[in-house]
Amino acid sequence: MALMGIQMVVSLLVASVMQRMAPHCSFARWLLCNGSLYRFKHPSEDELCALAGKQVPRPNRRERRHNGVQDNKPLTVPKDIDLHLEATPINALDALVLRFFLDYQWLVDFAVYATGIYLFTEGYYTLVGSSKEVNVGAIWCFLTVVFSLKALLTLVSHYFRSEEGGERSVCLAFAFLLLLLAMLVLVVKEDYLEFGLEPGFASVFDNLEIFLRQQGHEWSFPFTKLTVKLALAALCSFIGALLTFPGLRLAQTHLDALKMTSNRPLIQILLHISFISPLAVILLWVKPLARDFLQNAPMGKHSITLMSSSTFDSVRLWVLVATCVLRLSVTRIHLQAYLNLAEKWVEQMKKEAGRIAAIDIQRKVTRVFCYLTVVTLQYLGPIMLLLFSTLLLKSMGDYSWGLASETEGTTPAISSLVTPQPVGPTEQGEMEEDIQATAAHVLDTLSSLRSVFTPIFYRGLFAFFTWWVAACQVVTSLFGMYFHQYLVQS
């Protein structure tokens, strides 16, 4: 198995380009600062005084700001003033002051380059066929999944550090709820939810026993299927906690986006399809509703096969990719709907009686824009998890993008462990011989480990991970829809 090849060279080249081009060309900055998104400026004290019909001389205002006695009396205006916020396009200087902007820029740019690397490796394997090189594209996809989880964890930790305990309670409640749901899903038989976890774990245990015996060790791991499933359920609970607020935020921006595009029915249809698309992903793994129905579709007294098993696997991958692309296509609509919350709050304030401090109006309007990158990460993070876990499922599970596959059977669970021939002595001395022997031993060990974790295991693991990410989005977004439509209004 070659560790260095054209994939590694291209990967190192792309990493160098990404590092050098980040200050000059960034897809993340273009997404927010290309002029299509508008933020609302907060009104100044002079504008609020003019709208309130209250003329305050400038010396008095300066005195109010620097005199400790008068600082306790902030400027207040009536809530029903005729205030209209000024909209302005977001530029690069505005984006630099946003919360978590650097984390957002790193994640989005890395995901773009990872997609390019993956497309290159897919084309490379298509041209050269099966190769013994390490799939570098899969490594980039795995790193993108890890960085997405890290970004979401950063946001959740920010909620946990806040003085108010409401967000913390919501995360813990959903973590417990989704833990119960994960344990329930893991006990469902493969006849209903066809993840392939059972054959995958059996394959790993059998291959690991053979590997350890060949290395001179006895099989002494006290792992059981129950222990592994409990650990997997705990991981699912953790992921569910990370996806709680993204789902709740998606529900809010979806409702606001529908109101914003009330005169554009085609966009509304697109928004509805995008919102419910993860539900279709969940149903694709329900065997009686998906695979069994398409392979044995009832037609009167007979049944017909609409597509083969391999074709169904390819179609499922394409549906997952289409779901992610559809959600990416309406990103700006959701972000603009969030930015419009500032104007929405002002309109709601006008309907109330009483007075309000000018500084409170300015803070409320500014806060909406300051959390733009947080909302963007909450929107893009689950999409990246779903997309790149799908790419990992395809690559590591040995699936095909084509609608017809030459081989339809499963990959053998146990691969032959080939021991390389010892490297003979050369004229360059014993040092080179030792280096070659060490390299041969490392390659032999890696090849043996590669035979332990077979495509059957990766199919079950990444299929379940992909399905779980979609399920968490469905549960949290539907609850958020109910919360914002009924509980908030009441």
UniProtKB/TrEMBL annotation:
Gene Ontology cellular component annotations, sorted alphabetically: membrane
Family, per entry: Belongs to the TMEM161 family.
Keyword Signal: yes
Main location: membrane
Residues that span the membrane, as ranges: 137-157, 169-188, 226-245, 266-286, 368-393, 456-483
Signal peptide extent: 1-28
Organism expressing this protein natively: Erpetoichthys calabaricus
The protein, known as: Transmembrane protein 161A
Membrane topology: Multi-pass membrane protein
Keywords: Glycoprotein, Membrane, Signal, Transmembrane, Transmembrane helix
Compartments where found: Membrane
Keyword Transmembrane (UniProt): yes
